[in-house]
Amino acid sequence: MVKQNGPITGKQIAEKLALSRAALRHDLAILTMCGLLGARPRVGYYFTGKTPADVLAGMLGDIRVAEVHSRPVVVRENCSVYDAIVNMFLEDVGTLIVVSEGGLLEGVVSRKDLLKATMGNKNITELPVGVVMTRMPNIVLTSPDETVLGAAQKLLNHQIDALPVVEIVKVNGTDRFKVVGRFTKTNITRLFVELPGR
């Protein structure tokens, strides 16, 4: 209505919808705060040209991974495939992050990796996760400072369930990745649910 008839006053909108101005006040305030509508005193509301997707991208572009990531669920490289499967089910995650001493990233192991490891006649109680995990440079990472939108695009582009959240640290003069969290599709879903309250 505002797009077709703008600028239009709150009173005119209320009359067209057969509502009171008070009933519309909160809705118009939200649409204005989101940037979908603009408002000028004594002129009325007008359409800004932004779509809900533009507004959402803007909001997600301001939120950093550090604000929404989960604690990392980690195992060591010598952990057996069997123990990794048990850990995955107990923690209710789809990806485990494999770390060394000090929480340094060594690899990731997904449900698919563990499923492949159980095929055949392998003894999964003795087979270490280090044999089936994905190693660098084939691991897609994110940092606490990356935008949620950027991290979400990585999940989609690489068709994966989770990203290790890492910080770069120096170990014996070499840059290594210290795991500080995990970023998942669940984090994104929780963010969407919580966005109205932000």
Walk me through what this model shows.
The chain has 198 residues and is α+β, with helices and mostly antiparallel strands. The protein has two domains: 2-50, Winged helix-like DNA-binding domain superfamily/Winged helix DNA-binding domain (Arc Repressor Mutant, subunit A), CATH 1.10.10.10; 65-184, CBS-domain, CATH 3.10.580.10. 41% of the residues lie in helices and 24% in strands. It contains nine helices and eight strands. The strands form three sheets. It has a four-stranded mixed beta sheet. Strands 1-2 form a two-stranded antiparallel sheet. α5 (81-91) links the parallel β3 (74-76) and β4. α2 crosses α3 (21-34) and α5 (81-91) runs antiparallel to α6 (111-118). The longest helix is centred in the first third of the chain and has 14 residues, at 21-34. The two termini are 27 Å apart. The mean pLDDT is 89.
- Give the tally of structural domains: 2
CATH architecture identity of the largest domain: Roll
Shape: elongated
Task: Kindly state the number of beta strands.
Answer: 8
Structure characteristics:
single chain; 198 residues; alpha+beta; Arc Repressor Mutant, subunit A; CBS-domain; 2 domains; four-stranded mixed β-sheet; two-stranded antiparallel sheet; 9 helices; 8 strands; elongated
